[in-house]
Amino acid sequence: MKNSVWLGAFLCFISAVSWGAMFPVAHGAFKYIDPFYFTIFRYVSVTIILIPILLWREGKKAFRLEGKGLKLWFFGTAAFVVYNLFIFWGEDLLGEPGVMVASIMESLMPMISIVIVWMLSKKSPHRFTLMCVLLSFIGAVLVITKGDIRSFLGATSDIIPSLLIFIAVIGWVVYTMGGKEFSGWSALRYSTLSCLLGTATATVIVVGATLFGYISFPTVETIQATTPHLLFMIIYPGVIALVGWNIGVSILSPLNSLLFINFVPVTTLIISAFQGNQITIFDILGTVFIIVSLVSNNIFVRMSQKKESKRYIQTHLREQEV
Fold this sequence. Notes:
Elements: H1 2-29, H2 35-58, H3 69-94, H4 97-106, H5 109-121, H6 127-145, H7 149-153, H8 156-178, H9 187-211, H10 220-252, H11 254-258, H12 263-274, H13 281-321
């Protein structure tokens, strides 16, 4: 049991660090290639890697959709079309500031999931949790606007890419929450089949954009220049983070796993600093706000669960005495 917990923690840590590193790496690649073909090359490769692994581990029966094909396509589209295409599109449009904006938006995922559950269940979270959501939102605003909200609101060129990134992050939250619909499946099976359907949809969209002249197919020189970036993105944020995170969550539970999201913006900050990108005090302050909100809410939820468990045990003992 102890070894499995350490394995889950390790996988979640590696996944979070990989996600934090992918934005600076992608920024370097966008000097040569557009974010659309960069994403397609990445996830077509990830799919090609995952399919034989799933076939080897679980056999042909693992590729049966079991009447869940539409749901699987929906969640796969949320992750591998909405998230992957939009987040890098927005990052590329913003330029250098897009690296931190994309990273900080990703670290908002736990708080966004709270809001989504609130909207779906119509049950308001505790006031303390809402305060944490507000604090994380303030942190994100500081990073996105660099402390100058008035100028940001007047710049359409910044608002639209930021909105694309925000929509992308919601897509990944939806995908993560969708995993509950496939509780009888392994993390590898859900990852592989959702990746297959989502990437197929993304490929159709990118091919359509190419035919309409919005983007063009990369040259051989472009592919060669971005090969190191693609290899990193395929292996770490692609295969390892995708499957590793789903396995880690199944071992540690979503509550424990969410704490590792803190490593996303921290990793991005460190790598960006080494790359010579400009790091502002608002980037650091916003990151601290989000980390504090995530940790505080996690501690609060744990304490609430312990109190609820203790209250349940006491009530049960009283009923037995009666």
